[in-house]
Design a protein that fits this description.
Low-confidence stretches: 168-175
Strand content: under 5%
Structural class: mainly alpha
Largest sheet: none
Number of domains: 1
Number of helices: 6
Number of strands: 0
Radius of gyration: 20 Å
Length: 175
């Protein structure tokens, strides 16, 4: 086996490859959902103005797809450390390097815990939506709630990973 190939022996190289493939899969899933929303909206507008027959449930489908897409994008943003940061006290923290590292770890931990709690709350909420359906297409609401909860829990895991693992390569490859 050459050095370029990942080994299955649990080396960090294999874990990094797996991590990057997971993020890439999330990005592709979100991109496909966005493309579907754009295609549906375009088709709905053409049908509405050219044929006076809009797609009956385009709003419903767009709404459900966008919800899942947004939470997948949260996981991607957390994993690549591209989320919004408030830097009000950064000039003070930069004076003491230890504080910078500590503040990053504390804020990352708070983000991970918050996302995990939100994820578990959403999964709990999804269990109560087992009998709910959408008004037009009568699609079940629970799968969307489950996907949102899973995406939030995945975001929590990725945020926790960012606290403990310094990954500087991922952001450079996606820039």
């Amino acid at each position: 086996m050459s050095n370029d190939q990942p080994s299955l022996s649990g080396t960090p190289k294999f874990c990094d490859l797996l991590y990057h493939r997971l993020i890439q899969t999330l990005e592709y899933m979100a991109a496909i959902m966005l493309g579907g929303i754009m295609l549906l909206t375009f088709t709905d507008v053409i049908a509405r103005y050219a044929f006076h027959r809009p797609i009956a449930a385009s709003f419903e489908l767009t709404e459900m797809t966008m919800q899942v897409m947004i939470y997948l994008c949260i996981a991607v943003a957390v994993a690549s450390n591209d989320h919004i940061k408030v830097t009000l006290i950064d000039p003070l923290i930069k004076l003491v390097p230890f504080l910078k590292t500590s503040a990053d770890k504390i804020s990352g931990s708070i983000i991970a815990i918050s996302l995990g709690l939100l994820g578990f709350a959403e999964i709990n909420l999804a269990q109560g939506k087992a009998n709910e359906i959408t008004p037009v297409l009568e699609l079940p609401v629970a799968p969307v709630a489950w996907l949102i909860g899973i995406a939030l829990c995945l975001s929590a895991v990725l945020a926790a990973r960012a606290v403990f693992v310094a990954d500087t390569n991922y952001g450079e490859h996606n820039a």
